[in-house]
Amino acid sequence: MAAMDEIAVVVAHSERTTLRLGDVFLKVDTVQTRIDREVAAIAMAPIPAPRVLWQKPNVLAIAAVPGTALGRLGEPSPASPAAWAAAGAALRKLHDAPLPPWPGRSLDEVAAELEVECELLVSSAILPADLVARNRRVAEAAFRPFTPVFVHGDMQITHVFVEGDEVTGVIDWSEAAPGDPMADLAGLTLGHEERLADVLAGYGPEADADVIRGWWSLRSLLNVRWLAGHGFDPAAPGCEIDVLKARM
């Protein structure tokens, strides 16, 4: 059977499944709003994004973007410093674009979720109390006034595709909304702290490294239980738990 005739399962869990058939991705989502927002965000995005082929209830078909992912969490990135800088420049362009017309999450909502997650991480003995407490303090840097911008919302290195030193596509826009620009920068560099300077060289001087570090801790604390419950391993080398340990 030719590779283009094989169905590959890209992601599969109880909320979302993504399948690939040749150069077409099918995204099945239990929440129709996420699909609607992804289509709208792709149409608004001022940076390379997938082409929407068609949309039906709870299903979205998009075309593959060219290039290869900037890297993977837990693995050294093969991309050049210039490619990372290009990713930073793409984020800068996105953050300068007009806001999406739907609301994003408030910091109060994020803070409430963080409190619940920290308590559960400790009470369930998933993480040591001192590790959670230290990262909870680091995460405080994220809770400050900011001007909302057009954020991708799930920015990570597997969602940014490059060819050489050029960004050829950014995928998975279902979480796009008005939000904190430092959260996008933190997501992109999570587990790849050594690349932060390259990203900021492309992004510009408006970034705040302390807030980005706060978001590394915040994002990791919020994600550990979800990842473990959906078939992912946050304890894999270089992943979320290692990110939390790096703050100690």
Low-confidence stretches: none
Question: What's the structural domain tally?
Answer: 1
Extended strand count: 10
Principal-axis shape = globular
Major beta-sheet overview: 5 strands, antiparallel
Tell me the Rg in angstroms. 18 Å
What is the assigned CATH homologous superfamily?
Aminoglycoside phosphotransferase (APH), C-terminal lobe
What is the CATH C-level name? Alpha Beta
Q: What would you call the structural class?
A: alpha+beta
Total of DSSP H or I helical runs spanning 4+ residues? 8
Distance between the termini: 50 Å
Helix content: 40-55%
| Overall average pLDDT | 95
CATH architecture: Alpha-Beta Complex
CATH topology: Aminoglycoside 3'-phosphotransferase, Chain: A, domain 2
Percent range for β-strand residues: 15-25%
Element order: H for helix, E for strand: EEEHEEEHHHEEEEHHHH
Pfam families: APH
InterPro entries: AGP_Transferase (IPR051678), Aminoglycoside_PTrfase (IPR002575), Kinase-like_dom_sf (IPR011009)
Organism: Paractinoplanes ferrugineus
Domain Aminoglycoside phosphotransferase: 34-207
